[in-house]
User: Which sequence fits this backbone?
């Protein structure tokens, strides 16, 4: 009797893990992907498909527009990372609580203490790696200069992957405006991705840094590589 | 525990096997639909942030 109960308990735990890591992960990933798609389409809907690209100056489109941060759980951007898959897109929302990270409609959380896309400093975001949609499942596959695109209502921000760090979970300095130098004044525009490490463990965090390269307003359309991977409107 | 369930089920062996399969399917379905999503909200085995969450 007791033995049967214990075995049943063990089977239930294994079933839960299988459900969490595969079944629910896949269901959530599909839902988050669809949600991101519809948000992105909302931003480009008013823009005529054959709009002439706005004339870029020699410096591109100048300094990027920096949007105001929304309230908690407010969606404000969509993340595209070609290395994560040609159809990879996820919504970025304000805050890194479970209401954002475990949401079927959101999935990627922006650290409220950090800067916004395009802003001088550090745009730091977090997501799951192996459950609840696994928004950063393939983070360890990033390679130098891989594109990391962030789309907002204002336009498209292109970052290029720079390097990894593996740190203890308490390393808040990783998301400082100048990582690991909280006192310094930022001059660069960075993006920072954080998730758990190793895979299926929470012992450490893996940090991926990217450096801002360029931006273009919504009216100019997405960069060519991004246009190819954006869902057809 | 499982022997008791087996004894309580009516009918010949093949009916009992059928009933057991139905019971197992019902348990799995309720786990996936109600129990596991609820457990997922209270266990936090998936921390991904640095510093205070």
Assistant:
């Amino acid at each position: 009797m007791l033995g049967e109960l214990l075995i049943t308990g063990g089977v239930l735990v294994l079933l839960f893990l299988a459900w969490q890591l595969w079944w629910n992960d896949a269901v959530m990933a599909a839902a988050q992907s669809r949600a991101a798609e519809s948000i992105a389409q909302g931003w480009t809907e008013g823009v005529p498909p054959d709009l002439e690209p706005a004339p870029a100056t020699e410096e591109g489109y100048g300094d990027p527009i920096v949007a105001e941060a929304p309230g908690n759980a407010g969606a404000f951007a969509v993340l595209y990372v070609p290395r994560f898959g040609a159809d990879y897109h996820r919504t970025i929302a304000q805050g890194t609580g479970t209401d954002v990270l475990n949401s079927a409609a959101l999935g990627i959380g922006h650290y409220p203490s950090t800067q916004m896309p395009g802003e001088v400093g550090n745009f730091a975001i977090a997501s799951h790696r192996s459950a609840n949609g696994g928004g950063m499942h393939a983070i360890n596959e990033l390679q130098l200069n891989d594109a990391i695109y962030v789309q907002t209502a204002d336009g498209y921000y292109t970052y290029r992957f720079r390097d990894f760090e593996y740190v203890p979970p308490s390393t808040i300095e990783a998301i400082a405006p100048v990582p690991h130098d909280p006192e310094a004044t930022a001059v660069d525009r960075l993006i920072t991705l954080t998730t758990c490490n190793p895979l299926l463990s929470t012992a450490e965090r893996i940090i991926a840094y990217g450096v801002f390269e360029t931006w273009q307003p919504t009216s100019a359309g997405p960069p060519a590589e991004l246009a190819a991977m954006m869902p057809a409107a | 525990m499982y022997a008791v369930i087996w004894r309580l089920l009516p009918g010949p062996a093949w009916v009992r096997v059928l009933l057991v399969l139905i019971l197992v399917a019902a348990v799995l379905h309720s786990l996936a639909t109600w129990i596991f999503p609820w457990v997922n909200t209270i266990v936090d085995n998936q921390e991904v942030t640095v510093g205070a969450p």
Q: What stands out?
A: Chain A has one domain: 2-47+70-229. Helices of chain A lie at 2-44, 98-101, 224-229.
